[in-house]
Amino acid sequence: MNYQRAWHQGGTNFNTAHCKRVRPTRFDNGDPDLTGFGVGISKSISSNVFLAASYAAGNQATNTNLGDITVSGISIGAGYHTPLKDDIDFIVSGDIFQGTVKLAGFSESVNSYDIGAGVRAQFAPKFEGTLAVDYTSVSSGAITETDTSINAQVGFNITPEFQLTAGMDFEPDQTIGLGVRFFY
Fold it and tell me: Which among 73, 20, 76, 12 is positioned nearest to 47, based on CA atoms?
């Protein structure tokens, strides 16, 4: 089988649909019992530019009478990639997120933006990896928080169209994610 679907002439394939499950492994304020999922799609609009959109939702158990905290929202973004070598691309991307946080019958709007840069490389015909640095700014009401994180992800191609993914975000809070990606 040819496992080049994730890679094409001149670099990576950004025509994808994906879903993943995420969970923190370390949280600065204790164990939040937080889980979440995301689904999304990206589409190349030229040889070097892609658009992306996703939906994400999460739930955190508070272990109080207030109930659980839920977060959900949509993200839209764009990126640029260029080959550094036949099997390595440099990527710059950004997105905006609009979501809602709910607790005890109340809800509040959450807005954020994210800017990142990194590399995506094919290590072997069935394996690829991504290493990136992201800057994120999150605003809710009068509160704004910023964070810089390092993200690492690996992908294993089951078939030319399907890939299993595993990744970790290294920031003050550490999060792991497992998912699948479909190349079209």
Answer: 12
Residue 147: closest CA among 184, 119, 180, 173: 173
- Using CB atoms within 10 Å of the CB of residue 141, give its burial: 0 to 12 exposed, 13 to 18 middle, 19+ buried: exposed
Q: How many whole angstroms separate alpha carbon 70 and alpha carbon 74?
A: 14
What is the C-alpha end-to-end distance of the chain, expressed in Å?
A: 17
Q: What is the pLDDT along the chain (184 residues), one digit of tens a residue?
A: 334 445 554 457 899 999 999 887 655 555 556 789 999 999 999 989 999 999 999 988 777 777 788 989 999 999 999 999 988 999 999 999 999 989 888 899 999 999 999 999 998 989 999 999 999 999 988 889 899 999 999 999 999 899 999 999 887 678 899 999 999 8
* Cα separation, 160 vs 117, whole angstroms: 26
pTM of the model: 0.86
Question: Looking up tokens 């920031």, which residue turns up?
Answer: 171
